[in-house]
Amino acid sequence: MSVERINSDENSKFTHILSHATKVPGLIFLSGQTPVDKNGKLVDGGIKEHTTQCIKNLENVLRAAGSDWEKVVKVNVYLKDMDNFGLMNEVYEKLLPNPKPARTCIQAGKLPNDVDIEIEAIAAY
């Protein structure tokens, strides 16, 4: 079985600890994306802006892997505070195509660099 590691030039790089995605025949497993820009800096704003950035970062990785949101089959959302669920959903609903992929959303005890959201996905290609 072939295994390909993928990194997007549009996202900040952490190649010393992970790849943005791993592609195996038929599937792409996308690493969790946090609300940071290409330089690794947390974007300004609250949960809505942070959700938007996570989705944008995932889209960059999907494109680098030869896929797109239409082919995403599963999304996992990790929130620092479940009270942000409604605000996150407002952005998620607008930015992801219909029908929406399967999804899990949980409150995480602590996320990298104390961010308020991280999103990961699995896609087909």
UniProtKB/TrEMBL annotation:
Q: Which GO terms describe its cellular component?
A: cytosol; mitochondrion
Q: Specify the superkingdom.
A: Eukaryota
GO terms for MF: deaminase activity
Output the InterPro entries linked to this UniProt entry: RidA, RutC-like_sf, YjgF/YER057c/UK114
Which SUPFAM superfamilies does the protein's record reference?
Answer: YjgF-like (SSF55298)
Q: Which Pfam families match?
A: Ribonuc_L-PSP
UniProt-listed NCBIfam families: Rid family detoxifying hydrolase
Family, as annotated: Belongs to the RutC family.
Name the UniProt record assigns to this protein: Endoribonuclease L-PSP
Q: Which organism is it from?
A: Lentinula raphanica
